[in-house]
Amino acid sequence: LLTGGVVTATPSTSNASARLLRGVCLSPARNPLSGVEVTAVVGKGADLAMQKEYRRTITDASGLFAIPWHTGEQIELLRAERDGYAPAELTQTDFPTTRSVELILEPLASCEVQVFKNRPDGGLDRVSGTATFYVLRRVAAENETQNPHEATQLAGRFVTIGAEQVQVENGRHILQGYPQGVYKIAVVAENDYAESEPFSLGRAGQVVATVVLGNRQHFEGVVLSKSTQQPIPKAEISLVPQKLPHPDLARTLALKTTSDGDGRFVFDKVVPSVYVLTISADGYTTHVVNELLIPTASDSSSLQQVYYLEQGSPTLRILVRDSGGKPLQGAKIALYAQDPSAIAPTHFAEADQNGQALLSNLTPGRYTAIVSLADAPQRQKQQEVLVPERGEATITVTFAPLVEVRGTVRLTTGEPWNGLIYFVPRGLLGPKTFAKADASGGFQAMLEPGEYVVGRADQPATSQLRVYREGNTGVVVTLR
To answer: Can you tell me the mean pLDDT for 170-190?
Structure first.
């Protein structure tokens, strides 16, 4: 009989009907793990969704545990946690029926960061003292099928998941407790900034990431007219670091220059990183290059590029309509560049009597258009738009009549949710429409017909809702 651990919350029903959920906690190598806290979420009573009980136990030296449950109860979730390991979970549908439960806990890995600084003679010195470490984890690109642990050479997108001030001793510091994935380490020390190359953390063990401060690169290019192939003098060129861990770092490392009479520009002492390159000139469309990589070591000839500018500038026409196609005059429009390095990142306009607005002199790239009604400014629509390098782009923003939606909000535990919930049109950007759920979970909201995702407070949306043109009463929304 498996009897590992001590149950800290015991059921109140009769022992005569007691059963044991038996199991074992293992490492990926199938070694038993002792000292793991195992929690079972148990549904009780006539309405299993309404009454919950949490029963906890600790695995013994053989990794074994046993949790009692009774006839009429339902174990909905089993969760195992131990320091140094990622939590493991099983839901009711995952429980085996012919053998004991197995929970596999993946160990968290560690990384040794080695920090050096370049000397004038080309040598390296180990850095000691206070430094700020930023941990950046790679987010897989959309529809990416490659194993992420083999993706260290892909551009991807890195997000900051941790920052701490540390004391570096003799050029070394250990970072512990990170799950599998592809990472970069960024370090600010001695009034300098540098990043490591991307590296992969596996299930266990320790990897080494090297950061070299004081590394600088040479970057140059030529700006030409696409139609005449002639150089463009006095073009304005900027290099702005992209997605650095802190905005102050981007401002510190940003560089600007202008092209000479031959259209040539030069940047010396560029900190290796990923940049946004922006080139603009009077009478030409602004040219933007995202995710321009300035590597830590390269042949300078590989950093010489030719950039072509189109004559003229693109425009964007925004049409605002109701669901019947009628123009909506006076709608307020704000257009925000998703690239903060855009020459003019924000544009404003108002729909005319034909329900349209024309925005010109735009920097090519992705924008977010926010449109609000003149007679109901609280009603807003957001839409992404790609502005091309030349010509005119057109988008239509449609406002449909609102319908009333009434229903109840419950959590997956069965309890009613009492608080704010929000609705966002599925597959679109916000803004959010909020509603207040009362003590019984009841709510009402005014929404346009369509598909929505629903969430609570500031948490990610966890439910979906279909709103019809009529008959939206008795709706049940279940949130995590």
So the answer is: 87
